[in-house]
Design a protein that fits this description.
Strand order of the largest sheet: 2-1-3-4
Oligomer: single chain
Radius of gyration: 14 Å
Structural class: alpha/beta
Number of helices: 3
Order of helices and strands: EHHEEHE
Distance between the termini: 12 Å
Length: 110
């Protein structure tokens, strides 16, 4: 159930969003391959945001459930791949954060 949110600075939305939109399928494939899940389990969203100057113009947050194969090394490699793809597609700097959720307290209603 990878949940990927790409927060894009509103002042750079026009510059970055088109390239990111066309790269969403590629990003989904990268995330699903790295986490060994089917693409139907993945949720992606581009979100226009406002923040103070000095932050990366694109901030990627990935929330996942834990798994034995999802080691720190695996997730770091995935984050680096995501950052590379997002920077390439947006033309902007990006930060990537991955958080593992607690399955005992996580609730999803679909």
């Amino acid at each position: 159930m990878p949940n990927v949110k790409l927060f894009i600075d509103e002042e750079l939305w026009d510059t970055a969003s088109q390239g990111l939109r066309t790269g969403l399928a590629e990003l989904r494939d990268l995330v699903c391959s790295g986490l060994q899940v089917d693409t139907s389990a993945c949720q992606l969203a581009l979100i226009r945001t406002t923040g103070p100057k000095g932050q990366p113009p694109v901030n990627v947050e990935l929330h996942i459930m834990p798994g034995a194969a999802r080691t720190r090394e695996c997730l770091t490699t995935l984050a680096e791949g995501i950052r590379h793809l997002v920077c390439e597609r947006s033309g902007l700097a990006a930060a990537v954060r991955i958080a593992t959720l607690d399955p005992a307290t996580y609730v999803a209603v679909k």
